[in-house]
Amino acid sequence: MRAVLHKDRVKVRIVRSDRKGRPEGRVVEIVERPHQPIIGRLLQEGGVWLVAPEDKRYGQDVLIPKGATGTAKTGQVVVVDLVEPPALYGQPVGRVKEVLGEIDDPGMEIEIAVRKYSVPHEFSEACIAQARSLPDKVRPQDKKHRVDLTDVPLVTIDGEDARDFDDAVYCEPATSGRGKSAIKGWRLLVAIADVSHYVETGSAIDIDAYDRATSVYFPRRVIPMLPEKLSNGLCSLNPEVERLCMVCDMFIDGTGEVTAYQFYPAVMWSHARFTYTEVAAILANTRGPEAQRRKDRVGDLMNLHDVYRALNSARSRRGAVDFETVETQIVCDESGRIEKIVPRTRNDAHKLIEEAMLAANVCSADFILQSKHPGLYRVHEGPTPEKREILSSYLKATGVGLDISDDPSPGEFQAIAQATKDRPDAQQIHSMLLRSMQQAIYTPSNSGHFGLAFESYTHFTSPIRRYPDLLVHRVIKAILGKTKYQLPVLPTPGEAHAKLSRRLEKGAASKAKVAGEKLRKPSAEVTAWLAAGLHCSANERRADEASRDVEAWLKCKYMREHLGEEYGGVVTSATSFGIFVTLDAMYVEGLVHITELGGEYFRFDEMRQELRGERTGMRYSIGTRVRVQVSRVDLDGRRIDFRLVRDGDELALRAMKDKGASHEASPRVPRDEQLADNKSSRRSKSRKGAESAPRGRNPAGSAGKAPTRNGATGKRGRSSRR
Question: CA–CA separation, 75 vs 599, rounded Å?
């Protein structure tokens, strides 16, 4: 392993099995070594310069020759290009390519994350030049062949900190048909920024947008998919200015079913910019101060609320899965330090917009499907046979009284969620239901959306921040113009897409086997759309990982100030090596290692997802309430360790605090730390004194994986991302 690095593609020979029957191997060949800049801190030890990688998965320090340090100083965070790869008897050698600054500089965690995950963060010169050449406002020639909706009181409803406005909405009571057969309902207009008018296929802006595939949201900073002139200016549906848009114009009956729809390009004028908080206050009290300030729009908002209730009732009838989870928001000060972590509450305004966006997305998918034009669908498939079996066993073990069928429907999941919502272990059951589902992806093969219980679904409503939405707009325009949208030649998906590609191939093969058909090779056109879907799906994962990494870093830095303090919390995950606990007061998650649970042997019950003590029968499962002490924070590894506080420990801990030892005392290192270090390359001992926090390794073997799972990513507070 000394001759290989993280991300290398290797060939391995299995040489033996260990005592538990697990195969052990040996690297026999390095098949591919991708170009990968390494981010880390520059250190000097005994006259030798080296960089300690920030990502612990690299496992080896990089030697830096004396003339290759550039302007970097000791302790600074740098980006290194490898000059010589590692060998069995030699460390990798590199040169400093870029100096990011000091580890405590504001925003450093974001600078690290964008390079660590290879997030494109600088627009090309051609893209910037093209953006400069765009007009500042809608021109007369842009309005040709468009419906004039400037007199329709469309409004935007977003979060307080939103800067780009993708969508505007308007609703009014309407009737479909005449006489006795007339159906009462609502006309709902969802107007979406017409990005495709300004971003032409194959243009410099389009190439950069495709490369990014999505905007990446961090606390206090956004890396946009489009240049700011478009994302915050020309395409953003800002109040009281003309903007180009694509409209989904729907008729929704009293039961919440969309019975008719049409798409058309238009020109709009946003009559107001609302926030979720403001709309929720108006809906709750139509005579309150918020309503008085916006009295001209109160009637329209009430119509939107009425259609939302109808759409929500249709959602319940479909059996769409709807779990109420706690989302959190990180509140930072001007220097980027966390001030507090607060829950992000979803009110009726959030749900109102979500249902309107879902309706428009469903109409988009249906429009593309009916036209038989290739495009990208947002596909969310049901649980795999393996996950279905695990879930079924778990439901039986916990005595829920309900089970899922061999071909489960979303309604079965929702029925279990509803039947167990008042149980003490409801959180644990809902967590298992969520874990059994697959992740949603973009693909040209429509398989429906399992979680939302839609036969077809796509993303149409956020072309400013998602490339798949921009492609959907282009396809819809092509269908309206009775032409065909030709996808440009796109780069071949790289290794980052391989896992998704294998999953799609496996799914297609199993479906063909069930249908008794021979697996057909897709056409060149379908292959191109498949590649686009893989690229967008993989980059969506990349954006989420980068956001989580930054949140984990901020939370670790925040918790360093609370070493030794005690908090109440709840178990959010149980594993074979310990339990993850989320603190009530801070919404921060950390690990209580199995060696900290007491002086007995704990066995992990995978079926019940719990740890159980063999001697006492003590159980730790999802939802168990515990009291913990913050014992260790590893900033580099993005890991927070807790120590379980028992009744007998409290007096001793209070005595330590009285002596002022809670922050200075060295945290007790779990007994398995030495074992964990023996399984990977050790760091130089002399560097330990140079680091601000003790280094630790994840006993699960996933060094660098952040245990922190909750937390806001700075995204707009809505769930239409699904």
Answer: 41
